């Protein structure tokens, strides 16, 4: 057993749902949250914490409003946007995610660092090497043990959203959202995320998510999810 493997014993697991808006992350997070405690995968005494980015801490909730619903004069430029997301993540990791994992609990998050690479990198066109360096600082090297990418065509996600008011990111335009969607596909292949066909019936998608988690547990959790790696 390596030193890293030994250090990982007794810690919780960190699961992340990624995808474009409208892909069903909230629905599937709720379904996983209902299934996981009774699945037999979590050790006795382990609790499940559900969270999200941005907004998983009191500071994060204030930053979420600035990022998604700012007064017109306060809308951040792309670089400021990137730094605000990093600040949200640094606080989230330091005060919520890492303490829970160190206590042996499991964490299930709606978005993590993959969304920054997709939206601010591929979408906004900011340099991915800068984003990677900033993510390492914000996360302290923490990466998800398993990332489920809910893959849904952009046109279908927009139909699902219907007439729901768009936030500042969603309102950035079709070209931007197409770049984001392509970015998620690229990141999923690059980072080894588990692809879930999110266009299916929600119950079938939930079963696919459950199988993905069970398969990962049976195969063994990656050591890289705890100590080091590119994140998300």
Question: Would you give an account of this structure?
Answer:
By secondary structure, the chain is of the alpha/beta class. The protein has a single domain (3-225), classed as Rossmann fold. Helices cover 52% and strands 11% of the residues. It contains nine helices and five strands. The chain has helices spanning 3-8, 25-35, 58-68, 78-102, 113-123, 128-139, 154-161, 174-191, 202-219; strands spanning 14-18, 48-52, 106-110, 146-151, 194-197. A five-stranded parallel beta sheet has the order 2-3-1-4-5, sandwiched between helices. Helix 3 (58-68) packs antiparallel against helix 4 and helix 5 packs across helix 8. The chain is globular and about 50 Å long. The protein starts with a helix and ends in a 13-residue tail after the last helix. Residues 1-8 and 226-232 have low confidence and may be disordered.
